[in-house]
């Protein structure tokens, strides 16, 4: 739905914890076994509102549209980012303005537009890289083979938690369109 606000402050890096409290009675003394559960901190989207750039721009679909907090997936009503249709090596990147250990990148794929057009399967062969400078964004983070589906939230784990100020998403199959990009990590 246009303008849908899905929370961005909860990341799936939290581990589900299951604790079973067993109550038992031994004769007349009631005892409870207690477990202390330590939860991992909730990570916020560190890309939200940060400067973004892309290799080219189609119409008015700017790079900043992927970090504006709008969780809508109709590119026409919600303004997702979109590189030019002639761009054969498209990329999109965000400047986190500080160095982070990157743990995950999430991509919110396009949904059906108001005219009923579905091009969600174009999100494929996506590479996510991280770097300390704009000219050196080549540390691998993860890969999504695709194809994407309508309004899919693609979670790309970064198993090595690379350090970087810049996160880049690139493809070599066709132009790139991203409705929202969330980046999670810990400041270094």
Automatic annotation (TrEMBL):
Gene3D superfamilies registered for this protein in UniProt: Galactose-binding domain-like
Keyword set includes Translocase: no
GO biological process assignments: regulation of cellular defense response; regulation of complement activation, lectin pathway
UniProt entry keywords in alphabetical sequence: Calcium, Disulfide bond, Lectin, Metal-binding
Keyword GTP-binding part of the UniProt annotation: no
Stretches assigned to the Fucolectin tachylectin-4 pentraxin-1 domain: 43-187
GO molecular function: fucose binding; metal ion binding
Function: Acts as a defensive agent. Recognizes blood group fucosylated oligosaccharides including A, B, H and Lewis B-type antigens. Does not recognize Lewis A antigen and has low affinity for monovalent haptens.
Oligomer and partners: Homotrimer.
Family: Belongs to the fucolectin family.
Entry protein name: Fucolectin-1
């Amino acid at each position: 739905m246009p303008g849908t606000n899905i929370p961005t402050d909860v990341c799936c890096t939290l581990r589900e914890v299951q604790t079973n409290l067993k109550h038992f009675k031994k004769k007349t003394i009631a005892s409870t076994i207690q477990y202390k559960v330590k939860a991992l901190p909730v990570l916020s989207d560190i890309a939200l509102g940060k400067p973004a750039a892309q290799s080219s721009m189609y119409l008015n679909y700017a790079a900043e549209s992927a970090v504006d907090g709008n969780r809508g997936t109709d590119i026409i009503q919600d303004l997702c980012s979109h590189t030019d249709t002639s761009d054969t090596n498209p990329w999109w990147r965000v400047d986190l303005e500080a160095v982070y250990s990157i743990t995950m990148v999430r991509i919110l794929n396009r949904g059906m537009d108001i005219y009923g057009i579905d091009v969600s399967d174009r999100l494929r062969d996506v590479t996510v890289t991280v770097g300390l400078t704009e000219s050196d964004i080549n540390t691998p983070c993860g890969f999504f083979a695709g194809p994407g589906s309508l309004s899919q939230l693609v979670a790309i784990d970064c198993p090595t938690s690379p350090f970087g100020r810049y996160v880049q998403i690139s493809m070599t199959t066709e132009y790139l369109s991203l409705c929202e990009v969330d980046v999670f990590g810990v400041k270094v």
